[in-house]
Predict the structure.
Amino acid sequence: MPHNSIAPALLFSNFPLAEELLKAVEKIGFERPTPVQQQAIPPALEAKDLLVSAETGSGKTAAFLLPTLQHLLSRHTTLFGTRALILSPTRELAQQTFNQCRALAEFTELKVGLVTGGEDFKQQQGALRRNAEIIVATPGRLLELIQQDAADFSHLQVLVLDEADRMLDMGFSEDVLNIAEHCNKQRQTLLFSATLTHYGVIKMADKVLKNHKTVALNTLHDGHNNIQQQIVLADDNDHKQKLLAWLLLNDRYDKALIFTNTRLRANELQAPLQAQNLRVGVLHGDMEQRERNRIMALFRDGIVNILVSTDLAARGLDVKGVNLVINFDVPRNGIDYIHRIGRTGRADEQGLAVALVKSTEWNLMAGIQRFLKQKFERRTIKEQEGNYKGPKKLKSSGKAAGSKLKREPKKVAAEKVKIRDRDKKNIGKRRAPSNPSELKPSNGQDE
Ligand code: AMP
C-alpha cells in the first residue's frame, strides 16, 4: 500500500507531555494512544473540564492520569495539601489506578497515596498528612477522613471522577457531591463514565463541571444503560401533538418532561394538552424568574406532573420522579440530546426517552445516534399511526440516501419558473407579492 494512503498515527510524543512522562509511557510499553486517549488528552491538557464516556479496557485510566500528572508538573506550588484527587467506585479499581499512577509518575517527584475502605484507617490518615500530591480514593472512606479534618482539598488542582455511573449505582452520589463541595472551586474536573445515558450522570455533570467539553466514545452494546430510548415517526407537527397526547394519556410515568426547540412551541403545546385534562406547566427563558420558580415548585410537588420546557430552562433541572422525557422537537445536537434525557432515570428503575421524529428531522436524529454510538428502538403507536415510515433507503451513516438530491414537487417547480419569467418581464415595475402559500411544499411541515 502506498505510504500516503495511511493516515499518520498519533504518537504519545505528539502530545505536549513532559519527558519524564513520555519515558514512563515507553517503559510501560504503550505504543500509540488509544481513541479515548487521543480525544481526551488534548482538551484535558488545556485545563478544560471534560465529560467523557469510555469503558474499562479503553485506556481511560491513562487518558486522565497523563494530563493530570502533566498539570501538576507544569504548575509548581508551595501550597500544602492534595493537588489531585481521583475517586473510584471500588477498592479494586482504586488499587489498579493507584498502580498505574505510580508507574506513570515513576520518573517524577510526585507522590501517590491510596485511601480505601478496609485498609488501616490510621495509616491512611498518615498518607494524607504526609502530603502525597495525588490521592486515589473510594468515596466512603475519604468522606470519613474529611469529616475528621484529616484531608485538605482547598488547593486541589484536578478532580477526577472515574466510573461515575458505577459510583451512582453503588449509592455514592451524595458522598461524591459532598467531597466535591470540599474541593477548591478553581480546580479542573474530569468526569468519566461508561455511558452518558445513565441515570444521574448528567445531573452530576451539571453540578461538578464548568463549561465542559463532551467526549463520547461509548459502544453500541452498552449494558449499563438504564434510559430506554425510542423513536416514534410523525407526519408533521399536528400529528406530533396527537402522538404526544396519546403518550401522556397512556404511558405510565410519575412525572414527564417535554422538550421543544423554541419558546413559541413550548407555549403552543400547553392549551391542547390541558384540553385533554392533563396537568401541564410551561417553562422557558422568556418567563420572569418568579414565575419560573412558581412553575418549578408546582412540578416538584407534583401539582403539575407534566412540564414543557426549552433546553436552556431545563439545564440543571433535578426533580425526583421524572421517568418520561419526550422530545417533541429533535434537539439540535447530540450534547443537547444527552442533557435532555439525562433528566430522567433513577437508581432503581428505567427511564424512558421518546423522540417524535418527522421526515425533516430524520438525518438529525441519525446523527445523534451516531454520536452516541447507539441505535434507538423504533416504536409504533397503532392508535395514532401516520403515513411517514422513514426513508426508503439509508446510507451507512443511517441518514436518508439521496435526500439532498430530492426534487421539488413538480407543481412547486413550475410555479417558481412562472414567477421567475414574470419577474424578468417586470424588471423595474412594482408588482404585487405572489402568494407564498402557493410555493409551500404540500407536506404540512412548518419548518
Ligand atoms: P483502562 O481502560 O484504563 O482500564 O485500560 C485497559 C488496559 O489497557 C490496561 O491494561 C492498560 O494498561 C492498557 N492500556 C492503556 N493505554 C494503552 C495504550 N495506549 N496502549 C496499550 N495499552 C494500553
Notes: The longest strand covers residues 227-233. The first helix runs from residue 19 to 28. Residues 1-8, 426-447 have pLDDT under 50 and may be disordered. The two ends are 48 Å apart (CA to CA).
